Amino acid sequence: MGQSEVAQKVEQLHVLLAKIQREYAPAVFANSFGAEDMVLTDLITRYYPHIAMFTLDTGRLPQETYNLMQQIKDRYGVSLQVYFPEAAAVESYIAQNGPNGFYQNVELRKRCCYIRKVEPLRRALAGKGAWITGMRREQAVTRDGLSISTFDAENNLQKFNPLCEWSNTEVWAYLKQYNVPYNKLHDRFYPSIGCAPCTRAITPGEDIRSGRWWWENSGSKECGLHVGKAAWIK
User: Fold this and answer.
1) Which residues does the entry assign to the active site, renumbered to this chain (predicted)?
2) Which residues contact 82 (CB under 8 A, 6 or more apart)?
């Protein structure tokens, strides 16, 4: 991947991000600190100050993710809005199912994801005009139909996936070219990083998201942030 090709991709991102900032205010970027999100973090913090950034702290993130959050604050001088799960819901879940009940079956895992991610996301998106994600089509079979822009009826706003057509090679070319910080778990073969107990390293040749909820089949590997309400247990 040459620098000229990366530059062309970046120019397309500038056009889209400028449009989002101008036409969909207040727009927000949901930052989960993956490699893709760091491309958007670098661009938004430097050029699009009116696009706010937030993150969902599930309470079970790896230490490396918290380290990166601090790096972002130190390097870019920005503070992300952090949304936490409702304490009472977490306490109730753990009382009924134990701290690791999500390993037992898909339903309990989805319930945990709903409490720790989906419900906080809805609070984060309330009253917003658009939200931006770092999702790419290459990431999973559940994302191969991803489009750059779509209306999110669940949250009543426009949703943008600016990097949906980017390859993993293009993402890393940007990070290296612009010396962007990234989660150090990537260096230990964690291409997709979520909560610590639900994420593991992968081996060469495995699907990029095979390290997420590895005990489930590939068709269920979403946390609920990017699928319809009907698929999730409340």
Assistant:
1) 223 (nucleophile)
2) 54, 55, 56, 57
